[in-house]
Amino acid sequence: MDRAWPEGRFLVGLVGAGIDSSLSPPLHEREADNLGLRYLYQLIDIGALGLPVEATGELLWQARRMGFRGLNITHPCKQVAVGHLDRLSPDAAAIGAVNTVVWSDGTAVGYNTDWSGFTRSFERGLPGASVERVVLLGAGGAGSAVAHAVLWLGADRLTVVDADAGRAARLVELLAGRFGVDRVGGGGPDLLEESLRAADGLVNATPVGMVGHPGIPLPLELLHPELWVADVVYRPLETELLAHARRLGCRTLGGGGMVVFQAAEAFRLFAGVAPDPERMLRHFESLTRVDARP
């Protein structure tokens, strides 16, 4: 039986690996304070606990038993979590990955707020940018959400590239069924050079570049000044990829906007109260300024 908490009090959390530096706890908790809610946001790091990604289902069950109102789900658990839920929102079902789980009336429901978070961030941070031809790095949970967002934004052609060509092919098949076979293709890294040469934009939806996964997800010589470059990574806010792209003269978009807008929607799902995204953005900026101090 699900444990009931008093009205206006919420226990929520984040499940993933390497999440000790996540800004989700202060981002959610500060907004709850502003709204007069009692809100505790806990981190459940499978890496720190020595657990495999396959333990995601057990963690969901345990969190439900302990009275969590809901959980955010991040790398590498977004797709694994799908098989352990009672129901999916239409967006989550189409994307095949969840980043938010809410328990209500004994039912575990999975949502995906990543795709709408990326959409709002893109429209805000890269206004007027062409999405005629876009290359996406990464076919995992974040990549699937970003792919849906880019196609929803109107991309004529999306090329999905993943180190695992089979995983890219599976995502392409899913996207083609929803958006049409003429709008999406993909495969392994051998596609990068040719597809980037004609592309308007590039999105990195892999964990490469984040704290714990340092590096650059592609050969930098493939970038050119006509590209806009976006990254879903937000710790650090400017990855090596974005720093190099900016030096080339590319328009760039960090992962901060996406993380705030997806968090705002997840907060609404958890608490049933609409947060103030602009206030959350200001809080995120203050957190990252503190984080950047020597």
Distance between the termini: 48 Å
CATH class group of the largest domain: Alpha Beta
Structural class: alpha/beta
| Average residue-wise pLDDT | 94
Are there runs of 5+ residues with pLDDT below 50, and where? none
CATH homologous superfamily descriptor of the largest domain: NAD(P)-binding Rossmann-like Domain
Q: Which band does the percent of strand residues land in?
A: 15-25%
> Portion of residues in helices?
25-40%
Largest beta sheet: strand ordering: 2-1-3-5-6-4
EC number: 1.1.1.25
Family: Belongs to the shikimate dehydrogenase family.
Domain Shikimate dehydrogenase substrate binding N-terminal: 14-101
Pathway: Metabolic intermediate biosynthesis; chorismate biosynthesis; chorismate from D-erythrose 4-phosphate and phosphoenolpyruvate: step 4/7
Your description of this structure?
It comes from Phytohabitans maris. This is Shikimate dehydrogenase (NADP(+)). Its EC number is 1.1.1.25. Pathway: Metabolic intermediate biosynthesis; chorismate biosynthesis; chorismate from D-erythrose 4-phosphate and phosphoenolpyruvate: step 4/7. Belongs to the shikimate dehydrogenase family. The chain is globular, with a radius of gyration of 19 Å. The longest helix is centred in the last third of the chain and has 16 residues, at 256-271. It folds into two domains: 9-112 and 257-291, Rossmann fold; 115-254, Rossmann fold (3-Layer(aba) Sandwich). The chain has helices at 24-34, 56-65, 90-95, 114-125, 141-152, 165-179, 192-197, 240-248, 256-271, 277-291, and strands at 9-16, 38-45, 70-73, 87-88, 100-104, 107-111, 133-137, 157-161, 184-187, 201-204, 228-231, 251-253. The strands form two sheets. A six-stranded mixed β-sheet has the order 2-1-3-5-6-4, sandwiched between helices. It contains ten helices and twelve strands. It is 38% helix and 19% strand. The chain has 294 residues and is α/β, with parallel strands linked by helices. Strand 5 (100-104) and strand 6 (107-111) form a beta hairpin.
